[in-house]
Predict the structure.
Amino acid sequence: MKGVTVVDHPLVQHKLTLMRKKDTSTKSFRELLREIGALLCYEVTRDLPVELVEIETPLQVMQAPQLAGKKLVFAPVLRSGMGMLDGMLELAPAARVAHIGLYRDPATLNCVEYYFKAPADLAERVVVVVDPMLATGNTAIAAVDRLLEAGARQIRMACLLASPEGVSKFHGHHPDVPVWTAAVDERLNDHGYILPGLGDAGDRMYGTR
Ligand code: URA
């Protein structure tokens, strides 16, 4: 699938299988989501530019690589995006965070914004939208629309699971935004849930129903 990287690392796939199981506890689900957040972050940031700087080791001076440019921005979509954020921040602790509050109207499946707070200099940073489920694609499209409106220019999308329908709708609107995911599942059901999927990520993270 063009513009989609499936992170098929065995650790990611193993953790995802545990998350899919209906009897996995809220505690384990939350821990696994954080861990996969870190592993996806590793892949999403694989091509970030580095520059050489002069440092001194205890033995000699050397030219060593460090990340170039401004720090990243992680943009979790509330509420389930928060479940991946801490894992990502463990790998990139200096990253900024933009919170995007969007909910899916259960009747229309359309997105409604209720909160948005982002760093002012989005234009100079790589922004990673974080949402575990790329299902209908509507939330991801609305999140990227809002970030573009706020000035973001380099946007990437990190999710745990995607549907083929969601990816194709998302790339219909935002063909230049690459997606990283642990799996692209079979399809959406009539209620906009991913099959076989893992259920409602927010409910499983927080033990709500
Ligand atoms: N959101 C979820 O939490 N799960 C799905 O399957 C689809 C959207």
